[in-house]
Amino acid sequence: MNRKELLKEMKESIGTKDPIVFFEKMVDVFDLLFDKIEILEDEVHRAQIHASLAVEWEPMIAGTMLVKETERLRSIDKSVYHNEISALKRAYAEDRVTQNYHDFCEFWISTLGWHPFFEYPVEK
Fold it and tell me: What angle do CA 49, 53, 58 make, to 5 degrees?
């Protein structure tokens, strides 16, 4: 349910329906808010990583990005992203693509299809 519909239903339930209906909708609102907060926290964390890499390339941070992306893909669907997960794990183990910006970005784009610092798939 989208935010506008939910808020409209909450307003309409005041004084016309059982209070439990309003509070059920309030729980849905909190659910939406918490999801949005998690997305924003992830974006802030990514911005912090990107800022540190903009100052000076750090292979260890790039390796951490490989691990985090592996975890993210596993959480979505391990069987669908099997090839990507394997490629990320192999890249982390070999520690070659993390040594410079160009190789890292080239690997990331060829494996995942999007630039690691300019794009980011957002799940809703």
Answer: 105
Are residues 114 and 120 in contact, defined by beta-carbon separation less than 8 angstroms?
A: yes
Angle between helices 82-94 and 59-77 (to 10 degrees): 160
CB burial string 35-61: b at 16+ within 10 A, e below: eeeeeeeeeeeeeebeeebeeeeeeee
Over residues 30-86, the pLDDT tens digits come to: 888 998 999 899 888 888 877 767 667 889 989 999 999 999 999 998 888 999 999
Cα separation, 68 vs 35, in Å, equals 19
Per DSSP, the residues of 4-52 read HHHHHHHHHHTTTS-HHHHHHHHHHHHHHHHHHHHHHHHHHHHHHHHHH
Q: How far is CA 38 from CA 8, 11, 29, 69, 76, in A?
A: 24, 26, 14, 16, 16
Q: Which of 59, 86, 91 is nearest to 73 (CA)?
A: 86
pTM of the model: 0.60
R_g (Cα) of the chain, nearest Å: 20
